[in-house]
């Protein structure tokens, strides 16, 4: 066994990247987690663990966002918000809210699918963070959801419904079951997770905002209330700001644990694991008497080898690993399968080639939450003037480094950026020749997500441009991206080939 396997403790975060709004369940000896995926495709990531500490990405439940035309272009902060994962009637179920459309549901006989197409359970603007409950004692089913003020004009309250046991429709118009405007000091109540335990209906839900808020617990003998409340996890004197929104799970031996996120700027929402117990009055106690833990005894589960969602990729046969997501619904022909290793991306023509934030054909993965070095090898296989490809750090502001075919036929190393308020990128360094149309590209990401770009065109790595502080979107952390594009026009514009994508700890 490795030292990590024999260490009786674990350290937070257990998922040190942007796995936003996590929810977790146990089925037998296996734990499963899903998270928000917003406008990226495929959506609804599915993670697996045997010990609640080591997680691997095993697939996605949503292959395309619907309606498809709405997500043909990037909508970075829209789409899939705060899903809830449940297991009922020998099926996996995921409910989520699209703030512009309503509450959706998919289900499958196994975690790897096949998953059904999205079914709209409740239409409406601003319906977010839904969670179902099937009451095994009575056979009744329920659903609770929160509200997005940006779409509905309403927030800080939770609405409850009776739900058809098939999970396909709601049986009433809904009732406000928690109005946090009536609770002194509470605001932005959201992210409810619904449970039945010890004869009580429980809603675990955060409030106070993602940066500085707290985790609350609500209980009632009846689903429609009245509910009493208690703060069960808050920052206190720790460095874990706003411990927020997650799920409760019980191990086979009867231990209780809670997974939640912490907002960390450009790194997005990283996932922490907290011990959980019940006090003498029947309320849950999270962490160290309500404060988040940094290190703690591991769950009472069989030791597992160290694991984390994959980041590196050799792109065997031209296929990318499941850690990658497009910034919108993909179209045929963006990536070409072939017999060798390497990702062959078509230089997609676009009138928006001047702004990577508007392009649907950027292939992304999450920015690691610890200092690291990102490298990839690139060959520009295009004779089209203006065709280009590269490695990006993508957010509300972005920067990328790569290769571009000039009007004179030569290939240049280019490095460009766009500020958050800019609608057009510009050079971050002077273009320079790239003999043979090849380069190794590197981004060194230090503390505070400060990024240093460099390149190697055959004579060793050389720095390029100034230090760039990665920035998130409103709800999404910064992303690493691979992109190939060309100016608007007619005909095929060639391709670019990426090989040996690597992320190593700094």
TrEMBL record:
Biological source species: Streptomyces griseomycini
CDD domains, A to Z: GH43_FsAxh1-like
Similarity comment text for this entry: Belongs to the glycosyl hydrolase 43 family.
Domain Beta-xylosidase C-terminal Concanavalin A-like stretches: 313-503
Segments for region (Disordered): 289-323
Keywords carried by this UniProt record: Glycosidase, Hydrolase
Protein name as annotated: Beta-xylosidase
GO molecular function, one term: hydrolase activity, hydrolyzing O-glycosyl compounds
Upper taxonomic lineage: Bacteria, Bacillati, Actinomycetota, Actinomycetes, Kitasatosporales
Gene3D superfamilies, A to Z: 2.60.120.200, Glycosyl hydrolase domain, family 43
The keyword Coiled coil belongs to this UniProt entry's keyword annotation: no
Top-rank taxon: Bacteria
Gene Ontology terms: biological process: carbohydrate metabolic process
């Amino acid at each position: 066994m490795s030292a990590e396997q024999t260490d009786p403790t674990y350290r937070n975060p257990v998922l040190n990247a942007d796995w936003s709004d996590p929810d977790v369940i146990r089925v037998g000896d296996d734990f499963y987690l899903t998270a928000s995926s917003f406008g990226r495709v495929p959506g609804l990531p599915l993670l697996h663990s045997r010990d609640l500490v080591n997680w691997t990405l095993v697939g996605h439940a949503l292959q395309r966002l619907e309606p498809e035309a709405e997500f043909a272009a990037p909508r970075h902060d829209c789409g899939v918000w705060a899903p809830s994962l449940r297991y009922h009637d020998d099926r996996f179920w995921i409910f989520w809210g699209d703030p512009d459309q309503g509450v959706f549901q998919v289900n499958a006989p196994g975690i790897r699918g096949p998953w059904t197409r999205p079914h709209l359970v409740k239409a409406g603007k601003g319906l977010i963070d839904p969670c179902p409950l099937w009451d095994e004692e009575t056979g009744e089913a329920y659903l609770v959801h929160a509200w997005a003020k940006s779409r509905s004009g309403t927030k800080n309250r939770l609405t409850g419904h009776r739900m058809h046991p098939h999970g396909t429709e709601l049986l009433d118009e809904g009732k406000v079951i928690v109005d946090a405007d009536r609770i002194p000091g509470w605001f932005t109540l959201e992210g409810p997770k619904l449970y039945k335990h010890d004869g009580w209906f429980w809603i675990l839900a955060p409030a106070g905002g993602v940066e500085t808020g707290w985790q609350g617990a609500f209980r009632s003998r009846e689903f429609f209330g009245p509910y009493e409340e208690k703060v069960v996890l808050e920052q206190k004197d720790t460095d874990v700001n706003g411990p927020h929104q997650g799920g409760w799970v019980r191990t086979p031996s009867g231990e209780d644990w809670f997974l939640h996120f912490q907002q960390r700027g450009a790194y997005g929402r990283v996932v922490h694991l907290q011990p959980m117990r019940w006090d003498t009055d029947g309320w849950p106690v999270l962490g160290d008497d309500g404060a988040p833990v940094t290190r703690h005894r591991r769950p009472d589960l069989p030791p597992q080898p160290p694991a984390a969602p994959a980041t590196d990729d050799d792109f065997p046969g031209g296929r990318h690993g499941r850690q990658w997501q497009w910034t919108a619904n993909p179209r045929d022909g963006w990536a070409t399968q072939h017999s060798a290793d390497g990702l062959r991306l078509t230089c997609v023509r676009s009138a928006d080639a001047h702004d990577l934030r508007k392009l649907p054909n950027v292939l992304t993965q999450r920015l690691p939450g610890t200092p690291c070095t990102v490298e990839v090898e690139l060959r520009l296989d295009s004779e089209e003037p203006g065709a280009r490809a590269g490695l990006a750090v993508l957010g509300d502001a972005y920067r990328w480094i790569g290769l571009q075919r000039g009007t004179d036929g030569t290939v240049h190393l280019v490095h460009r950026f766009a500020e958050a308020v800019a609608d057009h990128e510009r050079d971050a360094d002077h273009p320079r020749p790239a003999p043979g149309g090849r380069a190794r590209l590197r981004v060194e990401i230090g503390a505070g997500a400060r990024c240093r770009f460099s390149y190697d065109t055959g004579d060793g790595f050389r720095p390029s441009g100034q230090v760039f502080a990665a920035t998130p979107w409103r709800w999404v952390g910064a992303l690493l991206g691979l992109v190939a594009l060309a100016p608007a026009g007619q005909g095929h514009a060639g391709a670019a080939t990426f090989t040996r994508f690597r992320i190593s700890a700094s």
